[in-house]
Amino acid sequence: MAFPHYCDHMGHVNNRWYAHFFDDASMSLWSQIGLSERALRERYATSAVIAHVEIDFSNELVADDQFVIKSAFSRIGTKSLTLTSLLHHCDSQALCARQTMVAVFFDVQTRQSAPMPDSIRKIVTPFLVGDDIESS
Question: CATH says 4-129 is which class?
Answer without folding.
Answer: alpha beta
